[in-house]
Write a sequence for this structure.
């Protein structure tokens, strides 16, 4: 949460005091969510929170708080909860509360002399608007840091990544899925869908080693290529042809298609548990992949491979956030508004134009156009907006696996179904407890700090944050995991 502006209010003694409107957000779902804290009649009153438009699993409320320390909790479907992503404290009896410290910036003095009934409130609103704009400008001036300070912050992060290894990414417990190359394509993508995973390593038992990765991009390519040649993807083909057959182009060659545009075996990109986090991040960026397997080999020739984990940029970012969480003062870069950080892709009216435009589509656009844009623009997701460019949803590459539900791939023609219909196919998965990513739309404001955006991206399954305009949810930019790491690593 963060202060959103300033408001004038009169105390009982008639002396003006400063209240700071502060937005509280519960991003972890639920049916009914309430806010309670030291500022709600000393924990006796509960304040109902409202779902964010377009993201029903995110709840928010704005409260006007006096400057100082405040503690709070959330009541989610009757259970008392705290947000692990926000600062916590344990005041008594082991109870964990979230807390924040509200500061009041200096306000310009002003004299309001009402002349007509009702004019006082209008003039106060105008004054608040002027104060807010003035405070925003002051905030940007105060928070602007030198290029030297930016480089110092980046160097500290790079030093941390260089001195820690992929071992630190391994969870205490968990499971990693690998697919045998002899599996039928149908079964392979059904597993991806059911397990809520966008990618899986491929194991060749004959060779006794991991040979590649199967991702949603492979499914997109299969659908696109068959669609381009006027044939609907048949259930029989997906049931009989194995992953190896598709990867070796045997199916496509039998169809006499152009082999220059077909899927192929990419050399497996993997890391050792001894590799530094910096090397892991650079391998992911250089090879333009979402994850790399962490593989341990007990022999010098690379045999006897053991799959330990799938390393991702979000896992590395989580290590960064955890390490620097209580030392953010040593990284002035982290407190910069995300709009002031040279990263991400922004629409021209909001920030500098990056190397590529911000791609967006309407809900009635065809699935075929969305898949084509994903491949052509080389992006992992596309914001779906209405006629006012307000965020409605997002379509990502991994959403294509929803066609595995109820064998929809055998009936759906990608040029005859629109994005909205395609997203409905995966609705059950996206609202289930085990769904990867949890929420679909992860949003931020231009005023949110780099640290806040990084902490959001550090959550499993989150690969990008959409920057929206407060109130209207109009899309202003998009910041991805790769954007953050390209900036940090230079």
């Amino acid at each position: 949460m963060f202060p959103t502006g300033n408001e004038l209010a009169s105390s009982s003694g008639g002396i003006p005091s400063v209240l700071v409107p502060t937005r509280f957000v519960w991003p972890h779902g639920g049916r009914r969510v309430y806010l309670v804290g030291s500022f709600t009649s000393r924990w006796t009153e509960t304040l109902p929170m409202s779902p964010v438009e377009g993201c029903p699993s995110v709840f928010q409320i704005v409260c006007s708080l006096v400057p100082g320390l405040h503690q709070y909790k959330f009541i989610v479907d009757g259970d008392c909860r705290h947000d692990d992503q926000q600062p916590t404290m344990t005041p008594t009896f082991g109870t964990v509360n979230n807390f924040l410290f509200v500061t009041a910036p200096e306000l310009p003095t002003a004299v309001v002399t009402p002349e007509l009934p009702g004019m006082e409130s209008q003039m106060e609103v105008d004054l608040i608007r002027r104060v807010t704009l003035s405070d925003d400008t002051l905030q940007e001036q105060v928070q602007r840091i030198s290029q030297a300070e930016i480089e110092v912050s980046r160097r500290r992060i790079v030093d941390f990544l260089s001195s820690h290894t992929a071992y630190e990414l391994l969870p205490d417990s968990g499971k990693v899925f690998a697919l045998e190359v002899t599996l039928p394509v149908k079964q392979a993508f059904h597993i991806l869908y059911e397990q809520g995973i966008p990618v899986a390593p491929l194991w060749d038992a004959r060779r006794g080693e991991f040979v590649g990765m199967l991702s949603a991009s492979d499914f997109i390519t299969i659908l696109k290529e068959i669609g381009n040649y006027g044939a609907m993807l048949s259930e029989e083909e997906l049931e009989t042809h194995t992953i190896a057959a598709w990867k070796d182009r045997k199916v496509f060659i039998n169809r006499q298609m152009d082999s220059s545009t077909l899927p192929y075996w990419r050399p497996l990109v993997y890391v050792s548990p001894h590799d530094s986090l910096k090397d892991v991040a650079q391998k992911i960026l250089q090879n333009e992949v979402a994850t790399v397997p962490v593989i341990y080999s007990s022999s010098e020739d690379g045999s006897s491979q053991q799959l330990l984990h799938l390393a991702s940029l979000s896992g590395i970012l989580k290590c960064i956030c955890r390490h620097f969480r209580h030392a953010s003062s040593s990284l002035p870069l982290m407190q910069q508004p995300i709009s002031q950080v040279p990263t991400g892709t922004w629409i021209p009216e909001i920030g500098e134009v990056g190397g590529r435009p911000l791609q967006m589509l309407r809900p009635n656009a065809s699935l075929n156009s969305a898949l084509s844009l994903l491949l052509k623009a080389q992006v992992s997701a596309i914001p779906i907006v209405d006629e006012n460019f307000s965020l409605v949803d997002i379509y990502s590459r991994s959403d294509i696996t929803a066609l595995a539900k109820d064998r929809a791939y055998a009936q759906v023609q990608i040029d005859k179904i629109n994005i909205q219909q395609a997203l409905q196919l995966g609705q059950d998965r996206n609202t289930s407890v085990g769904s990867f990513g949890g929420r679909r739309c992860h949003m931020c404001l231009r005023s949110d700090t780099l640290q806040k955006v990084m902490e959001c991206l550090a959550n499993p399954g989150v690969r990008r944050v959409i920057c929206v305009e407060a109130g209207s949810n109009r899309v202003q930019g998009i910041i991805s995991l790769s954007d953050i790491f390209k900036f940090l690593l230079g």
Remarks:
- The domain at 166-314 is CATH 3.10.580.10 (CBS-domain).
- Residues 119-143 form the longest helix (25 residues).
